[in-house]
Amino acid sequence: MYDPLVDSYPGPQRPHARSYWQAHTDTDLPSSATALPERADCIVIGAGYTGLNAALELAERYQQQVVVVEANSIGWGCSTRNAGFAMPGTGRRGYADWQKRLGTETAFAIRTEYQRAFARLEQHLQHCPQQLQVQRGGYLKIAHQPNAVAGLRANYENLKQFEPDTQWLDAEAISKRVHSPQAHAAIHYPQSFGLNPLLLTASLARQATNAGVTLIEDAPVQHWEKVGDQHRLHTSKGQISARKVIIATNGYTPNHLHPSIHGRSLPVLSSVIVTRPLTTAERLAIGINSTELVMDTRTLKYYYRLLPDGRLLFGGRGAIRGKDAQHPRYAKHLLEAVRSSFPALERLTHEPVDYYWSGWVSVALDDYPRIYSPEQGVYTSMGYCGAGVTFTQIAGQRLAELAMGEELPPLPFYQSPLPKFPLPHFRRFGQWAFYQLARWRSM
Ligand SMILES: Cc1cc2nc3c(=O)[nH]c(=O)nc-3n(C[C@H](O)[C@H](O)[C@H](O)COP(=O)(O)OP(=O)(O)OC[C@H]3O[C@@H](n4cnc5c(N)ncnc54)[C@H](O)[C@@H]3O)c2cc1C
């Protein structure tokens, strides 16, 4: 598997991950333009949610000539590989943390920004004939062991002022909803929903091309040159120049794409298994209904949902290096987590899984993304830490505004560059040590 810290660039013509979404989704994606234009007002690198939202906004609202260059096919990165949890927020920090650091007013302003992201997502849903196959049942954040309950409860007590519709489920209430020895209490977030990530990519890509954006697939940027005030990008399909370039490559960003962002993100593999459809008896035994999203309180979280056809999607952190990503032990590890979460699914966990795939998420050193300009004419957004389905919708819009010289709201995402990892060469070693510690803690 492509590894951003090892390979020079992804693509061209790498096939999509063999995911459940690719196998079970019937949709139209716009086709790639055949020739790479020599110039554009703005070039966007990467055709995932971030890049497509930015391109759409630049073309539709600012009438810019935009060319999106994608290393492989549209949505080849995380945007067609994720679990489809549309939830409020991004990164790993909650409102309590923001409130403590920056005050209540800023924490509320962050909430408003998250709501804008949801509103944009709902618009994209309206542009999809299948309505993104949404499953609206909210999201359960579950205390996976008894000593996680007090912390979760404290979190809820603070959360209520920001999200008054959330609900606390004590041990008895959660045991009626999720039949698992690893569910001791939960917070229910009613606004969240499950979606089909490939349909979201397709909806965005269609809107972007309808607004005049040129999409070029199989054109990885291989070299970047600055000529006067122009950025000249060398791709496998030729060269293209513009005064403005948006880097929307997120967890797939090759190490040396541009010096200004080198060492500011850690690409981390997130992996997912999808089982065969559960039998009625199995579904009744585990309790969760077919529209709820579930995530636990581990440092290295597990998350799961039932898909519209009754399969169980179960995800968590994967291998550390790209070359290990497909090793069967990582799928086995997720199956073991299914068994400990749901002993009633013992039989299922001895069967081969129908789908197993992974993708690179971008982790920021201080746990939250930044949308900023690292150099004149260069703009980027990355570091969502695996929570980007909802937030990328607004991040793309903000990127476009930034590129057009507008002032962004005074929120922490827009005020500073991504911090550089100390000793970037040792990022993987630090990640390995962190995984050992987190696993030991949640045992
Ligand atoms: C298994 C998994 C499950 C997840 N589940 C969830 C979830 O349930 N909810 C949630 O909120 N988030 C989830 N995420 C994270 C979410 O998918 C991402 O945050 C989001 O898709 C990021 O979108 P993006 O457009 O920024 O990046 P991506 O979709 O990753 O797009 C980056 C693109 O850049 C391209 N690229 C890279 N280098 C070059 C180059 N040199 N030239 C040209 N193109 C290049 C890549 O080919 C890629 O297509 C999950 C991620 C994974 C991997």
TrEMBL record:
Stated EC number for the protein is 1.4.3.-
Q: Which GO terms describe its cellular component?
A: cytoplasm
The entry lists its GO molecular-function terms as:
oxidoreductase activity
Q: Where is the FAD dependent oxidoreductase domain?
A: 41-402
> Could you tell me which Pfam families the record lists for this protein?
DAO
Extract the InterPro entries matched here.
FAD-dep_OxRdtase, FAD/NAD-bd_sf
The protein's UniProt keywords, in alphabetical order, are: Oxidoreductase
Asked if the Swiss-Prot or TrEMBL record annotates the protein with the keyword Oxidoreductase, the reply is: yes
Entry protein name: Gamma-glutamylputrescine oxidoreductase
Q: Which organism is it from?
A: Pseudidiomarina piscicola
Per UniProt, what is the name of the gene that codes for the protein in this document?
A: puuB
